Amino acid sequence: MIIIGILYLLCAVFLALYGFNTFVLIYLYLxxxxxxxxxxxxxxxxxxxxxxxxxxxxxxVGRLIDAVAHLTYPRxxxxxxxxxxxxxxxxxxxxxKVQQYxxxxxxxxxxxxxxxxxxxxxxxxxxxxxAKGRFIVLFDxxxxxxxxxxxxxxxxxxxxxxxxxxxxxxGHINASYSALTQAQAIALDGHFVVEQxxxxxxxxxxxxxxxxxxxxxxxxxxxxxWQGDTLSEDMDLSYRAQLKGWECLYLPHVVAPAExxxxxxxxKRQQYRWAKGSIQCALKLGPTxxxxxxxxxxxxxxxxxxxxxxxxxxxxxxxxxxxPLLLLGRPFNLHLTxxxxxxxxxxxxxxxxxxxxxxDWRRRFSCFPFLALVGTGIAxxxxxxxxxxxxxxxxxxxxxPKFRVEERGDRWKGKRYTLPLNGVTLGEALLSLYALAAVxxxxxxxxxxxxxxLLLYGLGxxxxxxxxxxxxxxRVKERKHKPAFKPPSLPEALSE
Length: 496
Prior knowledge:
Layout: H1 2-32, E1 48-54, H2 61-69, E2 78-84, H3 90-103, E3 107-112, H4 119-128, E4 135-138, H5 155-158, E5 163-172, H6 179-201, E6 213-216, H7 217-222, H8 233-243, E7 247-258, H9 264-290, H10 296-306, H11 311-327, H12 333-342, H13 345-357, H14 361-365, H15 368-377, H16 379-391, H17 424-445, H18 451-470, H19 490-494
Parallel strand pairs: 1-2, 1-4, 2-3, 5-7
Antiparallel strand pairs: 4-6, 5-6
Helix pairs in contact: 1-6, 1-11, 1-12, 1-13, 2-3, 6-13, 6-15, 8-9, 9-10, 9-16, 11-16, 11-17, 15-18, 17-18
């Protein structure tokens, strides 16, 4: 009984720590948000290599190559590498595009690997062997970079000899497609508008997001190159580079649009990879980071950043401990006070990002309940990923499927790459029932202060489980028209 109470208190305290740290990032963002980054002059354009890592991307590989081939940059100083690990006809589609643009005078090549060693990290490492550029630009398959991307990023390296990498902001091609994509867009905006700005402008450690960015080649090499021992090779390299003394730069005004996963399975796979990869990075780099010759605040923020996904196992454990405490009649309103105050941080961060980006931010705020449901319901999925990272269990680099879904009328069901149902869904459904049972017990025992939290758990896990079941169906009716932005109702959200 005492052990359960202590565990619950520890979970509450650590969750509060991560929640209150959101307020720290908000403060740092407000402090630095008006700082401008004028584009510096550049006397001579350097040699640049654009790398496009792809793996089984029949729907979007052509769109990607077309966009990159039309980047505005001196042709004689631009090289494009399609780093293809595909096992389907993506390779032939990419090869035809490469031949088309090579015939037009573009320096573009296809590098196809038959063995997917170290996954994306291995592909980038292989491409670097024949890369001509002093600067390496990366775009994943779901991105459509604007034509002036290089013109708006490369000049910053000219006056900053220790600038190792630049990260730009992700935009969204299909944010209004569904409640799920709207929720993901809000979360991504919070990260790229508030968190990345706060970290970089305050001199804290900042992660490279794997795409829509530029690296100085010498920085990659001096930091130890791309390594495949984690699923977050981007975070791994960016932290190793900064620990070596290289600087980073975030450009929120440079936006590269990308496709948001429309299938809940794809979102869960993406979150699984990010959660497991970040904890792998924490285990790998944590000891070095803890003793680095940088200010204590910077070290602490780096550790919180690397371990941020621990909120999900803490949330799951908190739920599991709630029912025994209720049955034992133990009060824990003080613990919930910690959590309730800290839980205001993420919504405030997301609201700030929406207000900074969109004139209709008030209407977009009405989509926040779906973000709360998804953010809670994803906890078991990410807890499993973190447990595997902690015990050292390896896994493949599960790519996020792309379907070229750009408008509401576009379909993803029935296309290849859709993901099947997995066993985590059963666990989510059981946790939903568990939370709802705890709601009943809380009402019977008069513990009304616990009901809102338990309801959020019950609805969150239930929503994600139900949406996963619905997204496992083979077919869905197409919508013929793309309406203007409108916050979806719950029935609409469940029918996507």
